[in-house]
């Protein structure tokens, strides 16, 4: 997709994210809106995976470590044809398979996540396997900036460079907020680039809402041969809806009818 | 016969609200009381605590293993520490820190598991804690408690604050009607007989005591069946004396818990009863060994019969079976 098409897609995705969150009366609104542009570029222009290749051993893997923003993933997977979009009308409803976190019951979802701090280890294992079998698929994982204090991330980060996993790309959705407050106030992880650099990763900063910049970063993978790559995506929590942007309370807020209407009027 | 204690009609809070309110009362006179959170102050209803006692709240970020290790370190210096995190992560992610740093090293941390059982509803299995009783029962030197109502919650927190050994307390987040009058005693390790009857015994814990009590009333009103109801708030150490007393007449026993049918209250009771010669007809009600159906907490509980009608039906079936 070209930039204009990506721009239009993201508007469509954002509208759908809000629609299904309102329908479910639950969801992680702010973090879905902050990562959707990354998912848009990944699924439309980067990942070598489709409904036809969903079980192929050589498909690229996308593992969403910040599982709570599953609405973003579901909307993109539906758009890619992994399942009928109308399924999302049952999101979080009694007996639905579509729970509020990624689940392998849904076609296209690679791992069951929702407990933070699992995606990077799962991705490292998957990437080591590709190296062992001489397969050239790549592994992508999306981490929240708030989830980084989980120690497992740092154990996995060490091992990723130890095994020289240049087929692995981690993206941090650096929207600078988590539940209790700004990430810098809750448990500061800055400077993130220096930390990952010291752990043996090749690091790039990107504006996580700039499609050309995202595309250029993904096109440049691996950033350095023999090293895992980290993209620090600078994003805005609640991006695209004025009254949700950078607001703590929209972490898992559900818009009321008036807010929904206003949000939709902004997303055009 | 009938209710030992009458249910009052006060407004009900979630047990979690009572927990956070009680902590504030305790913190007012105890500078040594610390709350440790892992980006969990909102779900723990601790935002007012954080505002009123900023120096008494330690935030570790999203890092539950670190939470428990740090809490154990703080407790080792004599601090009165409450480590508060969702029950699912606190007891699974940090299991080894609980086993080694808290229980084995006897650092008296008060571990508080919030939004326990299936409180998180449609967020799914990562967020459910249906394993916590089972996992923690196998850890030596740890008291395990699930308060049923607002009164039990306040008492449990107050008594936990006085303990010099580790304790785990789990709370749900829905408003819970009172089972008791305020002057009815609560003691850690002693179950409470909240209704007395000779035909049947219902033993429940935590948020399932109330539907069990309602089921007992229904069985009385509609079928003339008299059931005893026990709030077994302390899973470990289990109140063997009370168990022996309610089992003595041989009436059928049904246990109820918001937990896997494996390793929780039901199996703890069964183990005692079998080992001591009791042969009462016996059923365990809980969540079967599967990933739960999707739904709200209430939908999930109803689906598995952990409701007034579900409990009454299971009890009736057991009574009919035996005759
Ligand atoms: C192990 C674990 N601890 C706690 C939670 C509860 N939780 C869900 S989202 C969240 C905040 C996440 O913040 P961040 O990673 O920054 O995500 P984003 O801002 O992108 O939504 C927390 C604490 C969880 N899901 N898993
Ligand atoms: Mg964040």
From TrEMBL, chain A:
<protein>
    <submittedName>
        <fullName>Transketolase</fullName>
    </submittedName>
</protein>
<comment type="similarity">
    <text>Belongs to the transketolase family.</text>
</comment>
<keyword id="KW-0786">Thiamine pyrophosphate</keyword>
<dbReference type="Pfam" id="PF00456">
    <property type="entry name" value="Transketolase_N"/>
</dbReference>
<dbReference type="InterPro" id="IPR029061">
    <property type="entry name" value="THDP-binding"/>
</dbReference>
<feature type="domain" description="Transketolase N-terminal">
    <location>
        <begin position="20"/>
        <end position="255"/>
    </location>
</feature>
<dbReference type="InterPro" id="IPR005474">
    <property type="entry name" value="Transketolase_N"/>
</dbReference>
Automatic annotation (TrEMBL), chain B:
<dbReference type="InterPro" id="IPR051157">
    <property type="entry name" value="PDH/Transketolase"/>
</dbReference>
<dbReference type="Pfam" id="PF02780">
    <property type="entry name" value="Transketolase_C"/>
</dbReference>
<feature type="domain" description="Transketolase-like pyrimidine-binding">
    <location>
        <begin position="13"/>
        <end position="178"/>
    </location>
</feature>
<dbReference type="InterPro" id="IPR029061">
    <property type="entry name" value="THDP-binding"/>
</dbReference>
<dbReference type="InterPro" id="IPR005475">
    <property type="entry name" value="Transketolase-like_Pyr-bd"/>
</dbReference>
<protein>
    <submittedName>
        <fullName>Transketolase family protein</fullName>
    </submittedName>
</protein>
<dbReference type="InterPro" id="IPR033248">
    <property type="entry name" value="Transketolase_C"/>
</dbReference>
<dbReference type="InterPro" id="IPR009014">
    <property type="entry name" value="Transketo_C/PFOR_II"/>
</dbReference>
<dbReference type="Pfam" id="PF02779">
    <property type="entry name" value="Transket_pyr"/>
</dbReference>
């Amino acid at each position: 997709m070209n930039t204009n098409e990506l721009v239009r897609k993201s508007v469509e995705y954002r509208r759908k994210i809000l629609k299904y969150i309102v329908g479910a009366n639950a969801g992680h609104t702010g973090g879905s809106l902050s990562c959707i542009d990354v998912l848009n570029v990944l699924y439309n222009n980067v990942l070598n995976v489709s409904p036809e290749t969903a079980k192929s051993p050589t498909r690229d893997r996308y593992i969403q470590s910040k599982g709570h923003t599953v609405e973003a993933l579901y909307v993109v997977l539906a758009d890619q044809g992994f399942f009928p979009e109308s399924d999302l009308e049952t999101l979080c409803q009694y007996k639905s398979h579509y729970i509020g976190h990624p689940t392998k019951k849904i076609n296209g979802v690679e791992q069951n996540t929702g407990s933070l701090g699992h995606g990077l280890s799962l991705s490292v294992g998957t990437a080591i396997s590709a190296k062992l079998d001489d397969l050239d698929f790549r592994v992508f994982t999306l981490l929240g900036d708030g989830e980084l204090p989980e120690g497992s991330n740092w154990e996995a980060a060490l091992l990723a460079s130890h095994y020289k996993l240049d087929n692995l790309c981690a993206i941090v959705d650096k929207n600078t907020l988590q539940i209790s407050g700004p990430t810098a106030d809750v448990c500061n992880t800055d400077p993130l680039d220096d930390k990952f650099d010291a752990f043996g990763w090749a690091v790039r900063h990107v504006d996580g809402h700039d499609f050309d910049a995202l595309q250029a970063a993904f096109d440049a993978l691996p950033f350095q041969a023999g090293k895992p790559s980290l993209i620090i995506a600078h994003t805005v929590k609640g991006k695209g809806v004025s009254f949700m942007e950078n607001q703590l309370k929209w972490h898992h807020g559900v818009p009321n009818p008036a807010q929904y209407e206003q949000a939709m009027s902004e997303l055009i | 016969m009938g209710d030992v204690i009458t249910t009052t009609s006060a407004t009900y809070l979630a047990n979690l609200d009572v927990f956070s309110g009680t902590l504030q009362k305790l913190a007012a006179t105890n500078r040594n009381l610390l709350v440790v959170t892992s980006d969990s102050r909102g779900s723990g209803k601790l935002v007012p605590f954080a505002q009123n006692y900023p120096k008494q709240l330690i935030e570790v970020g999203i890092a539950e293993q670190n939470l428990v290790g740090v809490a154990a370190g703080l407790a080792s210096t004599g601090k009165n520490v409450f480590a508060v995190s969702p029950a699912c992560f606190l007891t699974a992610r940090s299991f080894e820190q609980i086993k080694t740093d808290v229980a084995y090293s006897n650092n008296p941390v008060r571990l508080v598991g919030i939004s326990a059982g299936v409180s998180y509803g449609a967020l799914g299995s990562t967020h459910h804690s249906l394993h916590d009783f089972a996992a923690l029962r196998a850890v030596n030197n740890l008291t395990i408690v699930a308060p049923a109502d607002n009164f039990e919650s306040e008492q449990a927190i107050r008594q936990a604050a006085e303990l010099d050994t580790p304790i785990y307390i789990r709370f749900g987040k829905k408003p819970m009607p009172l089972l008791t009058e305020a002057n009815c005693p609560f003691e850690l390790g002693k179950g409470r007989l909240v209704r007395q009857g000779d035909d049947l015994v219902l033993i429940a814990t935590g948020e399932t005591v109330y539907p069990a009590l309602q089921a007992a009333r229904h069985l009385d009103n509609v079928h003339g069946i008299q059931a005893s109801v026990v709030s077994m708030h302390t899973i470990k150490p289990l109140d063997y004396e009370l168990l022996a007393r309610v089992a003595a007449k041989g009436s059928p026993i049904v246990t109820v818990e918001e937990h896997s049918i494996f390793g929780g209250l039901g199996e703890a009771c069964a183990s005692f009863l079998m080992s001591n010669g009791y042969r009462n007809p016996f059923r365990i009600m809980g969540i079967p060994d599967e990933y739960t159906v999707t739904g709200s907490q209430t939908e999930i509980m109803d689906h598995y019969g952990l409701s007034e009608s579900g409990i009454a039906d299971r009890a009736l079936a057991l009574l009919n079976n035996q005759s």
